[in-house]
Design a protein that fits this description.
Elements (H helix, E strand, L loop, with lengths): L1 H11 L7 E4 H6 L1 E6 L2 E8 L3 E5 L4 E5 L8 E5 L8 E9 L4 E9 L5 E3 L6 E2 L2 E3 L4 E8 L2 E9 L6 E9 L9 E6 L5 E7 L10 E3 L4 E5 L7 E7 L3 E8 L2 E7 L5 E7 L5
Antiparallel strand pairs: 1-6, 2-3, 3-4, 4-5, 6-7, 7-8, 8-9, 8-10, 11-12, 12-13, 13-14, 14-15, 15-16, 17-20, 18-19, 20-21, 21-22
């Protein structure tokens, strides 16, 4: 049962965005990366528990957890604005299997800022197509799975979806999947049985004869791509009468956009 879920996750996992890793040993020596024209981010570990970030215009000292010298900070575009950011390791669990990290966003003007929603992700993977940051925490025999979406203003990330073993399921490996708003309020919860025929995590079925993808959660942002009755889509985010969803065709091609929530079930 659990193997079914993990195999599914391997198939539907986000494609990794280009990233660069910096070991704790490199942070101790001091290193840097180019973020934008005229903006270089310098990183140097201060002792074992702090990391100094500097762009020349702005500096800040943040917590870092170097469980061992191989633990890595990750440079990547965590808010999908085409400017590289850095995720700093903040904790390690399950004998090094779970590595937690907190992203710090770099601006084109050399500013540095932390997530307002205090995002912290374990074993993170960036998906530039869906503009999400996903992670998984090994918890005993299973995984807790998190997805972080962009806030409506596009400047930050928040926990928009989470999945964990159900405490109320009929089967021992049933999962509860919850969608949340930026304040952390649960908008919807659904049960998922990884042993079900053809099941994949969070798939919703298209109920309308045809429904169009939209670039924004608005009727004015209608696109040309669509899905039809019986198609299944993965719902990443809920926002009012709309869902941010991705459809994967039989050939593996993915289409992402906003769909009317009333057209799905």
């Amino acid at each position: 049962m659990l193997f079914t879920l993990l195999a599914t996750l391997a198939v539907s996992a986000p494609l990794p965005a280009p990233t660069r890793t910096l070991s704790c040993a490199a942070l101790a020596r001091g290193t840097s990366f180019s973020a934008a024209p005229g903006v270089t981010v310098s990183l140097r570990r201060v002792g074992r528990a702090q990391l100094r970030l500097s762009t020349g215009r702005q500096s800040r000292t943040v917590p870092v957890d170097c469980f061992n010298e191989r633990i890595q900070a990750v440079v990547g575009d965590f808010n999908f604005d085409s400017v590289p950011d850095v995720a700093v390791p903040t904790g390690v669990g399950y004998m090094g299997v779970n590595v937690f990290a907190r992203p710090y966003f770099v601006g084109r003007d050399g500013t540095l800022r932390a997530s307002r929603t205090e995002v912290e992700v374990a074993n993170a993977a960036l998906d530039p197509l869906t503009r999400t940051l996903s992670g998984g925490v090994k918890n005993g025999p299973a995984y807790n799975l998190d997805t972080h979406c962009l806030t409506p203003d596009g400047r930050d990330l928040y926990l928009c979806r989470e999945a964990s073993l159900s405490s109320r399921g009929e089967a021992a490996d049933d999962y509860d999947v919850r969608w949340l708003d930026p304040s952390g309020r649960v908008l919807l919860e659904r049960r998922f049985d990884p042993a079900g025929p053809g099941q994949r995590l969070e798939l919703w079925q298209v109920a309308a004869q045809r429904t169009l993808f939209h670039a924004q959660p608005s009727v004015a942002a209608r696109g040309r791509a669509y899905v039809v009755a019986g198609d299944r889509v993965e719902v990443l985010e809920l926002r009012g009468d709309w869902v941010w969803a991705v459809y994967t065709s039989g050939t593996g091609r993915r289409t992402v956009g906003w769909l009317r929530r009333s057209d799905l079930r």
